[in-house]
Specification:
Elements: H1 3-32, H2 41-62, H3 73-91, H4 94-119, H5 123-142, H6 154-161, H7 163-180, H8 184-190, E1 192-194, E2 204-206, H9 217-233, H10 244-254
Antiparallel strand pairs: 1-2
Helix pairs in contact: 1-2, 1-10, 2-3, 2-4, 2-9, 3-6, 3-7, 3-9, 4-5, 6-7, 9-10
């Protein structure tokens, strides 16, 4: 890595630190201005937890350059993308879908714990599993008794959400998924190299990167997904505060790191 590259990377890290501060402030303002419905606490509870997870993962990614590479970045970006899609999908029918998807997740988790309790022979582990099952049953009772469990996949959520959420899924979903599932077109690009020896007939041989190349597009895309999720819950018109994502873009443009932003309108990682 050249001195110029190191200096540029350091400036990006500083910009991301400033972004984290403004993101935390924006999240606090979002919670303060949250459109609560006291007759149905479930929607606020489900959406609030999804948004908090979005903030948590985004902060972890933007603060660690070791994650800004094609081996680790897509793993977290896939979660952020799917989390945003889930928020958009729930908002199309908040009460029904917030209750339904929460009950569905609890039912699935409870079944797995029941299987563990039946399979294990250790009494302590069996007792602990039963405690967790009882806790989940109490949690399940919190949601509307009329709510039906909802099972759906991310692709269906993206189609129903439409708009830029669907565009983002079509653009990046397969790419992120290929990393998460170790698909061949990911392995061939990042974990194989052609042996230059002609006597070996230019075979592909396994390769790993001790120091993967750093790509600031990964934290930038994380910030975009986080901003989209927050905008979905609390419309930008409801806040006079400048968006943390917009501040980050302005900062990076001022530094001359990117000429055309946001990148998602121009191309993909």
């Amino acid at each position: 890595m050249t001195d110029k590259t190191k200096a540029t990377q350091q400036r990006i890290i500083i910009a991301m630190k400033e972004y984290e501060k403004s993101l935390r402030a924006e999240f606090e303002l979002t919670i303060k201005n949250w459109p609560h419905n006291l007759r149905d606490k479930t929607v606020s509870r489900v959406l609030g937890s999804l948004l908090a997870r979005q903030i948590t993962i985004t902060i972890q990614l933007v603060n660690d350059p070791n994650l800004w590479n094609p081996h680790m970045g897509p793993l977290l970006l896939r979660t952020l993308l799917e989390n945003w899609l889930k928020i958009e999908w729930i908002l199309l029918s908040p009460q029904q879908r917030a209750n339904g998807i929460a009950k569905s997740d609890l039912v699935g988790a409870k079944k797995r714990l029941e299987q563990m309790a039946n399979l294990t022979k250790e009494e302590n582990a069996k007792a602990h599993a039963k405690q967790l099952i009882a806790m989940m049953e109490r949690e399940e009772a919190f949601f509307s008794s009329q709510a039906k469990t909802i099972m759906t996949d991310v692709r269906d959520m993206a189609k129903k959400a439409g708009g830029k959420a669907l565009i983002a899924y079509r653009r990046h979903g397969v790419h992120f998924g290929s990393c998460a599932h170790s698909s061949w077109h990911h392995l061939a690009r990042f974990n194989l190299i052609i042996d230059p020896n002609p006597l070996h007939r230019y075979l592909f041989v396994p390769m790993w990167e001790e120091v993967p190349s750093v790509d600031p597009n990964y934290p930038l895309l994380a910030a975009e997904y986080c901003s989209n999720a927050m905008d979905a819950v609390l419309k930008p018109s409801q806040s006079n505060q400048q968006k943390s994502y917009s501040q980050l873009l302005s900062c990076l443009q001022t530094l001359g790191i990117f000429e055309d932003l946001p990148i998602d309108s121009e191309g993909e990682i």
